[in-house]
Amino acid sequence: MAKKILIIVGSMREQSFNRQLSRKAAELLAGKAEVSWLSYRDIPYMNQDIEFPAPREVLRVRKEVSEADGIWIFTPEYNHSYPGVLKNLLDWLSRPVEAGNRGSAAAAGKKTAISGAAGKSAAAHSRSKLRELLTMMQAEVLEEETGISLDMKAFQTDLLELTEEDEKQLAKQAEAFLQFLG
Ligand SMILES: Cc1cc2nc3c(=O)[nH]c(=O)nc-3n(C[C@H](O)[C@H](O)[C@H](O)COP(=O)(O)O)c2cc1C
After folding, report:
1. For the domain that residue 106 is a member of, what is the CATH number?
2. Residue ranges making up the domain that contains 109
3. Is the CB of 16 under 6 A from ligand 1?
4. Cα-to-centroid distance, 19 and ligand 1 (Å)
5. Cα(24) to centroid of ligand 1, in Å?
6. Count of domains observed in the chain
7. Under 8 Å CB-to-CB from 49, ≥6 apart: which residues?
8. Sheet holding 140-149, edge to edge
9. What is the pLDDT of residue 1?
């Protein structure tokens, strides 16, 4: 059976370059995996006062993550880190569903891939901080990453154009992720 890959875009922006990049990744996975996107703009801010029972929207995102064989995160870089909206989602996914059992969290043991599109840094800072966070959350993180450096033209047109090198890296990562999922 085809593996299920759930894409998480760390940007709320409609024309997000990371969303555009995720669509290119999905094209590469076509016919090889079942791909869907997680919608999470409705989840509340993490607040331990409302954690139990978890809000309906949180139950939904946890279910979608649990049912996926792998998640592929596309993150922008905000001030050398990942955006707060992504951190908020991951905080919800990091919490045990069964009291006292850390391994019962939706993110625990989840096979995860990281990519990012940003300015000059190619999201290197946010990708590395995201890896650290996911590792701490007991996710299994794929070694291969893709980092896209956006140029002036991209920022003027809001259109993501990949270089040949970028395309090769993304294809390599997609293949490696499929292998990783087994
Ligand atoms: C609050 C904020 C901080 C940012 N900080 C950085 C940064 O540290 N490094 C970088 O390369 N780009 C930075 N950027 C630019 C974003 O990476 C860039 O706008 C990117 O396109 C956002 O991703 P998106 O198109 O998927 O929304 C920042 C943007 C915002 C809004």
Report:
1. 3.40.50.360
2. 3-181
3. yes
4. 13
5. 20
6. 1
7. none
8. 33-37, 3-9, 70-75, 111-118, 140-149
9. 82
